[in-house]
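Technical appendix A lists one of the benchmark inputs used to test multi-chain prediction within the project. The record comprises two sequence entries:
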Amino acid sequence: MAEIPFPLPDLGEGLIEATVLEWLVGEGDQVERNQPLVEVETTKSALELPSPQSGKVLKLHGAPGDVIKVGEPLIVFEVPDDTAGIVGTVPSEEAPKRRVRLSANLDDD
Amino acid sequence: MPETMTAPEPVMDTQPKAQELSLQGALNLALDEILAEDPKALVLGEDVGTLGGVFRVTSGLAAKHGAERVFDTPLAESGILGMSIGLAMAGFHPIPEVQFDGFAYPAVNQIVCQLGRMNYRSRGTLPMPVTLRVPSFGGIRAPEHHGESLEALFAHVPGLKVVSPSDPQQGYSLLKAAARMPDPVIFMEPKSRYWQKGLVTSTESPADVSGARIARPGKHLTLVAWGAMVSRCIQVAELAAEDGIDIEVLDLRWLKPIDAEALATSVGKTRRAVVVHEAPRTSGLGAEVAQIIIERCFGTLKAPVERVTGFDVPYPSGDLEDEYIPNIDRILFGIQRVLEYKRG
């Protein structure tokens, strides 16, 4: 297993820190990509941060009310070694589905 | 020891070893063996060293073979290729990685103007034994520049070989074969198949992986594909069997040079052909494949060669790629058009 830290990203507009309002996931939770992780408040607004990847939440940094600076650790994920660092989504293997049927006269083959 | 028990048979090192591996693992094994067997081999690219590659293909190689032989480069693809060309001139056998297909564009000048021509320009005194690994094609819903189908671009460049494995065994065998070649090889890894597992037999002497391979034998129609489309075409062939249509799937493997004999043999037997690729249709490799088939099999073809391809648009990102990449129904439609063709 690999540990992938996710620091507080640059939230734009020159903001350098954010206050944790509420964690929307807990340590040990399995999260999906784009799932909301945490609600934070900046001097501009409150916003939800989506997860950059899927994985198991290993550690949360900061309790509600704590101030975290951009670039400081926010959350640590644990992911299987063969999926760590992936851009995009691991394709799921589904049973093939079809709508088109074939018909042919193969008598002269 | 009771008499009925027999001593375990000694393990023979020379025996081929079969193990279940993902395509990632099979490529990792091949690179590990190449580095062990060839002291001139080097692995370089963005994040291939400490991180082990974004797809884990180079995982553990730097720790095992040393940071001088497996090393990270700056985020500059032109530099990665320029460095590889210089290393090849100095006698090394570089295996550079461009992290994603869409990042190959900044390196095209080095690939086209130097890598492909150095052997020709130097009258054979500066061969370019460079194997450029490129995680390729779509299927992982990645953002722009992370899913492209560049085979036609590279196949058009004189001096380059182009190859794409379709499963773990092909990945292992083709990468080992490519690394032994004196020519530059563009090695297009189907990133949507990285996690697919399969039995991989590793051998000391390289397997014969020249030319195409029949991935599934059949008699009524030949589906020609490469990379990630091979497994989809095998799925289609299994579905077509439910309708009584017996389809042969030809895994082209080498996209430059193309195995014209294998195409002629297969289509000469089935008399019908559909070529499937993810890349845009216009000037895609499907046109080349179709023309080779026409040159060899014109008299026996029962219908024009059909192409099922991506569209003439930039490779779409995210969920839109489901509408772009040939799916099972689009391939079945293509097959049906060939099956019902009537000479007018």
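The interface with chain B takes residues 81-91, 93, 96-104, 106, 109 of chain A (CB under 8 Å). The radius of gyration of chain A is 21 Å. Comparable benchmark entries are summarised in Table A2.
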